[in-house]
User: What shape does this take?
Amino acid sequence: MLTVLQGKYRDAYPLLTSETRQRLTTAQFRTDSRVLYEQGKRFGPRITLYKLGFRFGDDQQAHPFYQFHFASDTLRAKPQVLLDVSFRDSTATQVLTFGLVPAPQKKR
Assistant: This one.
């Protein structure tokens, strides 16, 4: 995530799992990562862990995920957006999925 937030797409692409690289070309990765990079420019490059857990993937396996929020967003009751990254298992170092998700907001 930090590599993408710095705009170092070429360095970040090899950090994806092989199956993710098979379905996501370098050009697609750059396009998808650009959204994260732009948010980093808006909120600053520092991120803080917001939540971690497990979610079931399409393969019906539980995959660990981590969600981060921008450090500049910590004074809000709820962050505006979350950076989401998941891994194949708890010992994996290559990224299975990544993206930007809206943060849950209080219901009115």
User: Anything to note?
Assistant: The mean pLDDT is 88.
